[in-house]
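Sorry, can you check?
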Amino acid sequence: KEAAAFSAVSVEHAAGTTEIEEEPERIYVLDLVALDIVDNLGYGDRVVGVMEQRSVPSYLEDYFNNEDIAVLPMVSSSSADADDDEEGEDPSDVYYTIDADLIIGGGSQSGDYELLSEIAPTVIVYSSAYANAASDEGTVIESVEKNASVIGQIFGKEDEVEAMIDDYTDRTEALKAAVSQ
């Protein structure tokens, strides 16, 4: 998998820029789309923690049913401020249980970026809301492509991600052409 030595990388993401000095071996992935990307890039064996989800695709269930992978309760800074927080968890109580070299969070962790960054280098992936805020043209597909590029950059897999996106685009265009006939 790693033909070349890891090079430190500066990654721009939804919450800012993160310097990743060492190759991440222990990754907490708190966002389901990001978990799918990490899995597709072949780094699923490095996932040591996830955040519980209301619904998980069958092909990702092993991450949530593996005794070697921690499953954190669903929390965010916005839920901690709510009076009716059904989880009853303070994000700092949950997050400080993380032992990782890299944390990849989603939109629901964007308010917790500073706290997570105290624990390990943290990257917050884009949600469709971020895509729409950045541009009137942002779509869910564009945010997934951006996230794949961000995560690919961490591992030096930009070419592989570009090929995956090109393949997806080609298949989508072929499907559109077939449907329009």
Observations:
- Residues 79-85, 130-137 have pLDDT under 50 and may be disordered.
- The CA atoms of residues 9 and 106 lie 20 Å apart.
- The helical segments are 32-40, 61-64, 77-81, 91-95, 113-119, 128-134, 140-154, 158-180.
- The beta strands are 9-13, 16-20, 27-29, 47-51, 70-72, 102-105, 122-124.
